[in-house]
Amino acid sequence: MTNTPFPDGFLWGGATAANQIEGAYDADGKGLSVQDVMPRGISGPRSETPTADNLKLVGIDHYHRYAEDIALFAEMGFGVYRFSIAWSRIFPKGDETEPNEAGLAFYERILDELEKHGIEPLVTISHYETPLHLAEQYGGWTNRELIGFYERYARTLFERFGSRVKYWLTFNEINSLLHAPFMSGGIPIPEGGVPEQQLYQAMHHELVASARATRIAREVAPEAKVGCMVLSMPIYPLTPSPDDAVAVMEADHGNLVYGDVHTRGAYPGYFLRTLREKGIELDITDQDRDDLTHTVDFVSFSYYMSIAETADPAKKVAGEGNIMGGVSNPTLEASEWGWQIDPVGLRLVLNQFWDRWQKPLFIVENGLGARDQLVEVDGEKTVVDDYRIAYLNDHLVQVGEAIEDGVEVLGYTSWGCIDIVSASTAQLSKRYGFIYVDRGDDGTGSLDRYRKKSFGWYADVIRSNGASL
Ligand code: BGP
Predict the structure, then answer these.
(1) How many domains in the chain?
(2) Residue 172 domain boundaries
(3) ipTM of the prediction
(4) What family, per the record (predicted)?
(5) Catalytic (active site) residue 365
(6) Rounded to two decimals, what is the model's pTM?
(7) Residue 424 CA: which ligand 1 atom is closest?
């Protein structure tokens, strides 16, 4: 197809995460993860034990319906499917020495289905799914021992699946740890919050673990391509004042450091300044420094929104619904959850990351959460989600612009390619899918799947390799 900027072999697909899709939270030996005690998503308190109102315990029952779901992905023409492996299915408590064979067998079945349909797997090793035992008995990633546990887990996956899975992501949105310590780092949050020293030490441990996974992959699965995964968010100065530009630079540095470490293999100077100014002394061994030099093959990221930033304390009102700080941009519309919609921002962040790191880029999350209404059209149940088609179309047009700018983009996996439980709200009513799932926030529903209008639209985009945009 000539009239498209997307290269031959561009990987079109969709993305999900184990804790948001699978359900079967305690099936076949699976241990609890932090998600199983987070019935209210990012902002709500954790529960002592799993509670019936936690929609993730059942999810959309993908654990039993995976063959039907993957067949629907294949019907859209997916070339790639991003999913996560639930750490506590493989190591139920996280600190065992031997894996849970039934957990490995489930993901063998997933890979069998993908292979049957010729869909490339893209596996997230840890997607906000730290085993609860590691959180409660070790303090999560504040504890250096987690590096060893993660290393054993990653090695097990590479040894078992390394010949079948080409693309791997080490941690989902590794730059969210400072903002969501329990969800992202399995760090119990005491009254008064987690001391910054511990948060930054946890960040260091995850970065070392990510680099060790990369080193192991080179050894055990030489064909594998390992990427880091960050939450991307272009930041605009609220005014053209130089002070606002400095505020943007400093906020940007807070996110760019993760990609810098993964691609350059060492902490940049601006980060060392941050530590000095915060009075934080990281415990970094010579082995850590050597580990960090094992850099990634590609950089992947999620993209939903952009934010603004200002140096003026009087204007520093955090953007609604955004866990990563910043202020609202008065020139942009927001979604119902306050996420500011900015397709051009995707072109900007693609250029920024490419110019900075010169590594192939993979967009592994992008989508619009919305309260879809199931209706009947010509006797078929569906959702007329023209708003989602418009959002995705506008964003993909900007991916095409970035490719014309010379940016190397490996692929695009739309987030929540089937309705699943939202991470931030822990609800099902914030729907992203091309496929509607009949289950409500009250947990009732048939769990039947229905193709939305965007299902056919995306199939056309994939079939035409982007020419239909
Ligand atoms: C990202 C997570 C995903 C997904 C997405 C959408 O931060 O990596 O797991 O949940 O956000 O967010 P939400 O589900 O909160 O609307």
Answers:
(1) 1
(2) 11-463
(3) 0.98
(4) Belongs to the glycosyl hydrolase 1 family.
(5) yes
(6) 0.98
(7) 15
